[in-house]
Amino acid sequence: MHTFTKLLATEAKLFLRTPMWAIFGILLPTAVLVGVGSIPGMSKPSEVTGGYRFIDLWVPSLVVVGLAMLGLQSIPSAVASYREQGVLRRLATTPVPPAFLLLAQLVLHAAVALAGVALMLVTAHVGFDVPLPRHPLTYVVTLLLGLVSVFALGLVAASIARTAKAAAALAMIAFFPIMFLGGVYLPRPLLPEVIQRIGAYVPPGTQPLQDAWVGAGVQPLQFVALAAFALGGTALAVRLFRWE
């Protein structure tokens, strides 16, 4: 544990030397929220959304923005850059196991992502009168599972790509579908029903996040799907990890 703590502290210092990802991760979801909330009609109830306001149902989709950006762009680029620059080759001569390095990246980016989500939720509640999640515990569990499941996909790309550009390109295979299925490009109520059903079971779990938000029951199978992505993806990343 002492080795991991030192590694985490070192990674945190390196991460903050170029704070672009931290700034984007914390501020971007809120910035998008303010922009969307300023569009006329987004704050009015609609029959299309079952009487809810578009912004009420779109806030869970904004969670996807921060998670996808950090998990599928920042993490793959960071780890692959270490490989490209020979940092991982030098780490391979130390007792540091691959799992520690990947876990450190996950913890750092998770802290930034959760800070961004918290700021966005507070802004939505205070600025746009969006109610807080009615099932907060279910929401938090779903958020954590969704976070790890998205980050796990990024860790897989980071574990095998030789260069930062290759890692970013590989992660894009998951980035665009997750953004689309999560309702970022188009609000989920406007998506075809079959697309909505598929999106309910893929990371980061926008549908269960929304259900926990409005007070509807979350289907157990959705939790199982997110847990499978989270555990399976992380295990696969550790299994495929290459120092060079």
TrEMBL record:
InterPro entries with a match to the protein in the record: ABC-2_transporter, ABC2_TM, ABC2_TM_bact-type
Bilayer topology term: Multi-pass membrane protein
Keywords annotated in UniProt: Cell membrane, Membrane, Transmembrane, Transmembrane helix, Transport
Subcellular location: Cell membrane; Membrane
Transmembrane regions listed in the UniProt entry: 21-39, 59-79, 100-125, 137-160, 167-186, 221-241
Cellular component GO terms, alphabetical: plasma membrane
The ABC transmembrane type-2 domain, residue ranges: 20-244
Molecular function per GO: ABC-type transporter activity
Chief place of localization: membrane
Family per similarity comment: Belongs to the ABC-2 integral membrane protein family.
PANTHER family hit by this protein: DOXORUBICIN RESISTANCE ABC TRANSPORTER PERMEASE PROTEIN DRRC-RELATED, TRANSPORT PERMEASE PROTEIN
Protein name per Swiss-Prot or TrEMBL: Transport permease protein
Organism field: Amycolatopsis carbonis
Lineage, broadest ranks: Bacteria, Bacillati, Actinomycetota, Actinomycetes, Pseudonocardiales
